[in-house]
Amino acid sequence: MARHYANQGATLGLVARRGEVLQTLSAELATECASYALDVRDDDALEKAAQDFMARFGVPDIVIANAGVSRGTLTEHKEDVAAFKAVMEINVLGMVHTFQPFIAAMRQAGKGSLVGIASVAGIRGLPGAGAYSASKAAAISYLESLRVEMAPSGVHVTTIAPGYIRTPMTAVNTYKMPFLMDADVAAAMFAKAIENRRRFVVIPWQMGWMAWFMRLVPAFAWDWAMKKAPHKPRLDWDWL
Predict the structure, then answer these.
(1) What integer pLDDT is reported at residue 239 of this predicted model?
(2) What is the pTM (predicted TM-score) of this model?
(3) From start to end of 54-121, where are the E strands?
(4) Phi–psi pair at 99, nearest 5 degrees
(5) Where do the domains of the chain lie?
(6) Which of 29, 43, 167, 225 would be a feasible disulfide site paired with 97, CB 3.0-4.6 Å?
(7) Catalytic residue among 5, 132, 142, 164
(8) pLDDT over threshold 70, residue 208
(9) Contacts for 231 with CB less than 8 Å, ≥ 6 apart
(10) Topology of domain 60-226, CATH
(11) What is the C-alpha separation between 57 and 175, in angstroms, rounded?
(12) Contacts of 9 (CB under 8 A, 6+ apart)
């Protein structure tokens, strides 16, 4: 998404944990960038980054909360409790921490877009992905609440629920991933949804139909279908 908007000449504020990778990306982009190496669980660090960006460039037109992690989890394992906490803190509270410092200024300006990246996984609970499904379901509900809260101000909120995107996070999956998208293709679709001020969109459209069907499946039928579904691997990741 950074590359997509850089190609349009946008001024970017980029946030990531790995400072060296962030600097490499910034150097590749033919546009003005402000880079902030931080963890979205740190609300104070995000507050400082937001204030620095606005002092230098003004109120942003678009704020995208895209930080997210996934790991296979099973509630029965005591050691997975830490993973549940990390996934919820990053995927849900990280979104709150990203938006909060900008809202007052955007409300005063009476314009702008807040964009949250959720997931199709938030529509129904997936076996072996309790933490991830719960976090994305929470993100979808949070973004809906935020959207109606912000509506009178002129600030728009877009919820994007993508399917599978080819990234290191999905590379560990051992099962077939339908409608798998390359990252640059997904980014262009995301940007179009943001430009069109969509309220809620599932990307790609084929996954949208699948999401619609998932909503309609009765609980007993869902339980039967998911009983033998493949699980995301339980791996030890350094973000814990």
Answers:
(1) 46
(2) 0.88
(3) 62-65, 113-117
(4) -80, -40
(5) 60-226
(6) 43
(7) 132
(8) no
(9) 72, 127, 128, 129
(10) Rossmann fold (3.40.50)
(11) 44
(12) 31
